[in-house]
Structures are given as structure tokens and as C-alpha cells.
Amino acid sequence: MKKKKLLGINFLCGAVSILAFLVLWNIAVQGELGKMLPGPIPVLEKFFTSLVSGKIGQNTLVEHAFYSLLRVMAGYALGSVVGVILGLAMGTYKMVEAICSPLFRIIRPIPPIAWIPISIIWIGLGEDAKIFLIFLASFCYVTLNAWNGVKNVDQQLVGAARMLGARDHQIFITIILPACVPSIFAGLQVALSSSWATVLAAEMVRSSNGLGWVIIAGMNNNDMLQILVGIVAIGIVGLVLSIIFRKVEAVLCRWNKSGT
């Protein structure tokens, strides 16, 4: 009962903050700012019209979001799988860590957007270049968290298991891997946000669909209304992805407090 009440209060506070923002936005555009920036009512009208019936370019807003999500899921899944495997390997085996750690530490600080020119030269302007950028955006965060997860495992538990005769693969499956799950999920969530931001940047460079294309096309046409519709769609999709991920984490990590 207390938890439901807390959720209700959080929802109410969130709704009030959004409403207050819309009211302030509407007041702000009543003056000179209104000549450059449309108010919330026209933006929301355009947003809901473009969802299914009204098209921006050749697609509706839902279709643009779908294309962006397809690119994100492809690169994110690939980057997450490779990142988890490499992170666990680097944390478990000293030789792998010695070989991969220096190169990883060099690559990690480089923002995915910096790879756009190289991806165009190497791969071209097609979908593969966008997936490559998303792969880089998710790979580094997942690898780092999986690596740190192994490093933070309680060594007393590992030592006790060895004293009881547990083999290396048994220790990995029963102690190391479960202890790393919260850290891996934290990396996956950050990687998802980074992947979503990266695909939008990639679509702004070269694309014929997607939410990033909606914004850049609006800029080219000097259509501020379309730009804001694209921004609103980006924020809503990002919020939905975050909520879904937190729900999945809560189900899979019930035994861990960070998953609730």
C-alpha cells in the first residue's frame, strides 16, 4: 500500500512538472520569442497528427521512430553481447586484461560521433555505418561495467568456494556471474541511452528516414515546428525505453535492491 502511494505521488509530481513546463513555454512565446519558436499547442497538434496519418517526408512519425529503433536494437544487441563477453574475460583472465586493457582505455574516451568520418570512409553511407556507430556507443559502457563487476566480486566467497573444491567454471557460474549482473545491467542502461543519442546523430549526417532525419530536414526547410516535433518524439521514445528497461531489470534482478 505504501509503495503504491509513493508511486502515485511520484506520478503526480511528474505530471505537475510537465504541465508547469508547458505553461511556462506557452507564456514565453507570447512575446518576441513567439516569432522564432512555436508554442506547445501547435507542436503537440503537429505531433499527434504526424503519429499515424500526417506524414513527414515519406513516413509517419511512428514509422520514423520504428526505423530509428531498428538501427538502435541491431547495434545495441551486438555491442552488448561483445561487451559482456570481453568485460567478463578481462575481469577473469589476467592475460586477456593485459592484452585488451590498453587498447580499450584508448578507445573508451573517444565519443562515437568522432567515428562518423571514419565509418563513412570504411563502410559508406548505408545502414552498416549507423549500426557500427551504435555498436561503439554501447560496447564501451557494457565492457567497462562487466569488467568492473568481476573486479568487485567478493574474493572471500571465491576463496571459500575453492576451499570446498569448486572448479573454475563452477565459481564463474555460481559466484562471479551472479555478482556481476547488477553492474552489467547498469552498463546496459547507460549504453541504451548512448545508443539512442548516437543513432540520431548518425541519421542527421546521412539518412532518408528516422527521427534524426526529421530534425535535420526541418532545419534544412527552416521548419521550427518539425524540429520541435522531432525533439519531442526523441524524448518520449527515450523515456519509454528507459521505463521498459527498468521494468525488465526489476524482474530479472528481484534479489538485488538496485533492480527495484
UniProtKB/TrEMBL annotation:
It is found in: Cell membrane. Keywords: Cell membrane, Membrane, Transmembrane, Transmembrane helix, Transport. InterPro entries: MetI-like, MetI-like_sf. Signal peptide: none annotated. Residues 65-245 form the ABC transmembrane type-1 domain. GO terms for biological process: alkanesulfonate transmembrane transport. This is ABC transmembrane type-1 domain-containing protein. It comes from Flavonifractor plautii 1_3_50AFAA. Belongs to the binding-protein-dependent transport system permease family. GO terms for cellular component: plasma membrane. The chain crosses the membrane at residues 7-28, 73-93, 105-125, 131-150, 171-192, 224-245.
